[in-house]
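user: can you give me the structure for this one chain? tokens are fine.
assistant: on it. calling the predictor now.
[tool input]
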Amino acid sequence: MRVRGHNPVWQSQLPAWVSGLPLNQVQAAVDSRITAEVTHYKGQIYAWDVVNEPFNGDGSLVNDVSYQAMGTNYFAEALRTAHAADPSARLHVHDCSCRSGTAATARTRPGRTRRPTS
């Protein structure tokens, strides 16, 4: 069985204390979290959704603490950090909302999408 790891970086599941950090300390906290989680499962997880749901429905970036501290560079930093922790894992940025209403998905009910069968 192959296991895919999901979201070391997700604004919806960020501990409250991270949001309370001075912005110049956020990157170190995020890097530490990614390193700890990915290293813990190194070799057991074939792929990671490193950054989860960073986009708003209109395609703009969510204005979370990672974005406020590092700007758009936080994507690259998160992926570099995860790669250093487990170089053999496949790394992804995961976001379902950016595909809503496109040819890639078809809406089935609010909050749910399915891939077209054709």
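assistant: here you go. Strands lie at 4-9, 47-52, 90-94, 106-109, 112-114. The two ends are 28 Å apart (CA to CA).
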